[in-house]
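Students often ask why we bother encoding 3D structure as a string. The short answer is that it lets us treat folding as translation between two languages. Here is a chain of 332 residues written in the first language.
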Amino acid sequence: MSFKAAHALQLLDRARERGRLGHAYLICGPREAELEKFTAQFLNLVSGARHPDLERWAQSGVPVLRPESKSRRIIIGEAGKGEGIREMERQLHLSATPGGFKFAVIVDAERMTEQAQNAFLKTLEEPPPRTHILLTSEQPEQFLPTTLSRVIKVPLMPESGVRQLGADEQRLVRTLTKFSLSRQPGTMAVALGIRREFEDILDSIRERIEKQLEGEFEDEKKILKQTTDVSSQTIDKIEEEMTAAIQVRFLHQRTVMLELLLAWMGDVMRHQVGADRIDLPSHVEATRALAGHWDAARVNRAVKELRRLNSNLHTNVSAALALDSAFIAVFA
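And here it is in the second language, the structure alphabet:
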């Protein structure tokens, strides 16, 4: 369950008053949730300060680590060398706010390498007294399980509460809108046409992710070769991490697209039962049209099939077969 910033801060303030604040938090959510702004507000809440943003917190001596290198990765680094996890840990031990608290912030923390995450585990689990470590991430699924087990997640939603659609989601919505407004009975051809469009969207997502991460990998290799005596084993390890990151990001985006399908059918169901809350208010005309065209039994079946599809895609079932079966069951 995701929270608006104000509600999340109320819950954290309640925990603070009861002396139950954790020492490590993962603040996650979409870009529109303004994770850095919330993080600064969290620090203000704990310390009593009134800094407007993380830049001001960094100026006051709090270590704020960002993936600023050309390769956009957060490395282990060395203490005293100005970047990386070890330098942040060194600064953490030296710094303190007027309230006696120690803070450290890692922005876009999913950009930590596997080695950096492993190196950070001890500090994450046993920080100095009165310390709070805050990680921000739009892609929390990229963390190692060992990292996730040591933080408390604070999932945020945009302040408007309205889902913000990216270009890929808008493309899928256009397809769903055309289908919903057509008022034509579903056929095998229609179902497979929507399935092909969905697959084309997924292919473009994977291609974009591969292009981005492979470009970052090439940049990192150049940097390493210019600055260190890098071994072939190190290059191979980075390439393995890149391949794994591509797959993780792709699976996350596939889940986002499936969640959009579920949100669409969920709105159709909510129209039929007269519910007030709508996930996609900008597309209410289309979802209401489908609610009038389909009976309740068909909508229920569609929701169940999409939930089953989401579950099947997390097993060893063939993804292609699972998608074919589900789209035919929902749209034919």
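Translate back mentally: The radius of gyration is 23 Å. Keep this in mind for the problem set.
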